[in-house]
Each structure stands twice: as C-alpha cells, then as structure tokens.
Design a protein that fits this description.
There is one protein chain. With about 450 residues, the protein is mostly helical. Helices cover about 60% and strands about 5% of the residues. The protein has 19 helices and six strands. It has helices at about 15-20, 25-30, 30-50, 55-70, 85-95, 110-145, 165-190, 210-215, 225-230, 235-260, 290-310, 325-350, 355-360, 370-375, 380-400, 410, 420-425, 430-435, 445-455, and strands spanning about 150-155, 160-165, 195, 220, 270, 350. It has a two-stranded antiparallel ribbon. Strands 3-4 form a two-stranded parallel ribbon. A two-stranded antiparallel sheet has the order 5-6. Helix 11 (about 290-310) packs antiparallel against helix 12 (about 325-350). The longest helix has about 35 residues, at about 110-145. About 35% of the residues are buried. It binds arginine (ARG). Arginine binds near residues 110, 318, 320, 322 and 323.
C-alpha cells in the first residue's frame, strides 16, 4: 500500500518528477494560516455537531495552534512529498497528536478545503487593498486642493487642447479610483461566501452545520450549492479583473508622470526617493518606479487572462487544473499593496512646476476655442466662427506669434465682431473661470468636486 494519505487504493508509488510537478506547496504555503484557521473552525463544527468528542477537539485544536506558531516562527519544513498545504499540515498534525488527527478530515474534502483557504486569503486582504486605494484618493484630493488655480494645458491626442486646472486633472483620477473602490467592495460580497461543508462536491452524510463554520470564520453565509462551492473561482477572476482595471488606471497616471518629468515637459519633478540614476549618464534621473508599474500592469493582465483560460470549458466540479488558480492572485495582491503605498508617497513628494505648466499654456493655441466661442456668442454660426479661428491660428503660425499677439486691426480683417474684450477671453485663467458647466474645469466647479470628495471621504 502507498504511504500517501490517499494511499489505500494504490500498490505502487507515484513517479517522483510527477510528484514534484503536481505539488503546489510552494504556492499554497502562502495560505498556511488560512488553512489552519479553516481546520480549527471545521473541527469546532464537528464537535458542535456531535461528530467528534471534546477531547478529540482539544487535541486537534492545540496541535493546530502549535503548528501555526511554529510555522509563523519559521520552524516548520513542508515537503513536496505531501503535495500541498492541506496534506502537509495534516501530516505534521499526525506526527504531533497521532491517529486522532485523521478525524479532522471527516465530512471534508481538499476540494472544499482549498476553496475555503482561497476565499479566506482574499477576504482577509481585500479590506487593506480598499483602504490603500482610499489613502491614495485622499492624497490626490489633498494635492488637488492645493492646485485649484494651477493652470496647465489639457490634452487630447497628446496635443494641447484647452487650458485646464491641474486639480481638475487630478480629480479625474480620484473618480477612476472611486469606481475601483466600488468594484473591490462588490468583489467582497462574492468572496464572503464559505465553501466548507460542500465536501468533494455532493455534500456529506454527516450531520454537519456549514452555517456554524461560516459564522466562526466570519463569512456572511455558506454557498447555496455544494457543486458551485467547489467549482467557483468567479471571486478570484473578479479580483483579477478589478485589479487589471485599477492597474490600467495607475499605468495611465504613471505614463503621464514619465512624460511630464521628461526634459521636454518639465511639469513635475519626482523626489530622489522615487527616482534612479544611470550607471553611465551622470545627468539622468529616471522615473523607474512609474515604468515598473506600467510594466507590472501587463503582468496583472496576464494573470487575469491565465485564470480565464484555465476556467474556460472546465467541467464541474473540481479538476486539478484549478490548482493553477492561486499564483497569479497572490502575485497581484503582493504587488498592488506596495504599488498603492509607493504611488501615494510619490505623488505627495513630487514637485509641481506651476510656472512651466502656465508658460506652456501661454505659448500655445489652446485658447483658439475661446476665440471661436467669442464670435459665436456674438451671433456667428459656430462653424463659421471655428473657420475664422482656424485661419487666425494659421496666420499666427506664419507670423510666429500667438492669438493674443494679434492686433485688433488684424482681427478685424477676419471679422468685425471682434472688440477689445476678446483679449480678456484669450487669457487661460479667464478661459477656465468662464467654464461653469457641471463637472467642468472652472475653478468653482473643481472646488465643488474637491469638496464633495472630502465630504464623501469617510476614510
Ligand atoms: N492542491 C490542490 C489545489 O490547489 C488542493 C485540492 C486538491 N484536490 C484534489 N481532489 N486533488 O487545487
């Protein structure tokens, strides 16, 4: 008979290379604490339901708590011979308390056990991720509050479009992150279900109480359907999808930081803490961290795609393919938390070059819309007004000047509607101030957005 926990049916041992490939202990060791907590709750439920005695429960629970301490002190060695975290823990427990350890697996399978551990792992980490996003939002609001009247060019197609408040730009990221928070909060709902009690897939003949176990572990409730309980990885896919969207947002911000800290833009300067130099070019100050976040975004997308591909067409219920579900989630969790923390500090410590931003908007044609709006407000159809503004821009390009440099006389060559007040409208701060539409870049509108965010910010 094979020595394995499942060895009764086997007479020979498995191929060693197959054991190594099939083992998941290197990955699921990260759920050791969740595995032990889940086992303690399961044992308590078995006792509560009259399936194991008080004495058996005490032996199991004290054995498991010793294992937890030893594991967290780094005193336990797990082996691929025992395949995964579940069998490694059970094997150490057997060494400690003898055959009574074997009662722990009553009315349970590794299928519901692994699903439980994975749910617990994510359930324990989602609150931190949400609160790190909120901290980042707080920093953006804080920075926006100090920059309501900081003027910069707004871009479309990466070309100067119209003058905007820098705070308006920052608050756009605040809004994106707000949707990220909401997505992760929704994800919590689907993670907050306990699969334990489903056993292999069909439930159990023992008089168990899955609601009791779920309650002990702080879950809202058990899964309604035992087949779904062991087959479902939606909560992990949702997590990776939410993480991908979050990373997409962060990568856009990071790309802009890379651009804006370049010699050409010089809108911002990162603090030394978040930049690196070059081993050959002494002048370099590289925004490595932003580049790395951009790069890691692709890796997180890869994890999402990988899990979707693993789940595609997978028959119900448990299949070993599912063992590949964890690594990408763990990697994503381990990256997102430090990324959010570092980005928050990076944004808080970067220098905003307000003069350069303003200069950039004073030496461009981002006020051309104001000129067209001016004429159309005086009754000229907007299409004609737009054409005249375009012709004036072309004239300026020929002469090497800007719209505000053209004399009233020159403007009259294009339209008699121009009066001296046009020069006021062409000023970038006036262009911004005059925008009063809801959610717009107008200073008062932006301040409203900031105030609302502060009110909402119960974080
Ligand atoms: N290591 C496995 C996993 O991560 C645990 C579940 C194994 N179940 C089974 N029936 N082989 O998916």
């Amino acid at each position: 008979m094979s020595e394995k926990l499942w060895g009764g049916r086997f007479s020979g041992d498995a191929n060693d290379l197959f054991l190594k490939l099939g083992a998941s202990i290197n990955v699921d060791i990260k759920m050791a604490n969740e595995d032990i907590d889940g086992s303690v709750a399961h044992a308590k439920m078995l006792n509560h339901s009259g399936i194991i005695t008080d004495d058996e429960l005490n032996q199991i629970v004290s054995g498991l708590s010793e294992i937890k301490t030893e594991f967290n002190n780094g005193d336990l060695e797990f082996s691929y011979q025992n395949e995964d975290i579940h069998m490694n823990v059970e094997s150490v427990l057997t060494e400690k308390i003898g055959p009574v350890a074997g009662k722990l697996h009553t009315a349970r399978s590794r299928n519901d056990q692994v699903a439980l551990d994975f749910h617990l792992y994510l359930k324990n980490r989602l609150p931190d991720i949400i609160s790190l996003i909120k901290k980042f939002q707080d920093e953006l609001v804080n920075l926006a509050d100090q920059n309501v009247e900081t003027i910069m060019p707004g871009y479309t197609h990466l070309q100067h479009a119209q003058p905007i408040s820098y705070a308006h730009y920052l608050m756009a990221y605040y809004e994106m992150l707000q949707r990220d928070v909401e997505r992760f909060e929704f994800n919590q709902k689907h993670t907050d279900l306990s699969p334990i009690g489903a056993a292999a897939l069909a439930g159990t003949t023992f008089p168990t109480d899955p609601h009791y176990t779920a309650g002990l572990l702080g879950f809202q409730k058990p899964y309604n359907n035992s087949i779904d309980a062991v087959s479902d990885r939606d909560f992990a896919i949702e997590f990776l999808s939410n993480a991908s969207i979050l990373m997409m947002h962060l990568s856009r911000l990071c790309e802009e930081i890379c651009l804006w800290s370049s010699y050409e833009f010089k809108y911002i300067e990162l603090s030394d803490e978040f930049s690196t130099g070059s081993s050959i070019m002494p002048q370099k100050k590289n925004p490595d961290m932003c580049e790395l976040i951009r790069g890691k975004t692709g890796v997180v997308y890869g994890h999402l795609t990988a899990l979707l591909a693993t789940m595609k067409s997978l028959p119900l219920a448990y299949n070993k393919d599912l063992q590949e579900d964890k690594d990408g989630v763990f990697d994503t969790v381990e990256n997102i938390a430090p990324i959010l923390t570092l980005l928050t500090e990076m944004v808080a410590t970067m220098k905003v070059n307000k003069d350069k931003m303003l200069e950039s908007v004073q030496t461009d044609f981002s006020n051309a819309t104001e000129l067209a709006d001016y004429l159309s407000a005086k009754g000229l159809p907007f299409r004609q007004a737009h054409r005249i503004a375009g012709e004036l821009v072309a004239e300026c390009i020929n002469q090497g000047c800007y719209l505000q440099d053209l004399s009233l006389e020159k403007l009259h060559n294009y339209s008699e509607l121009f009066e001296a007040d046009i020069y006021e409208d062409l000023k970038p701060d006036v262009a911004i101030q005059r925008r009063r539409s809801f959610g717009s870049t107008g200073f008062t509108e932006v301040q409203k957005q900031i105030n609302n965010a502060k009110l909402k910010g119960d974080h």
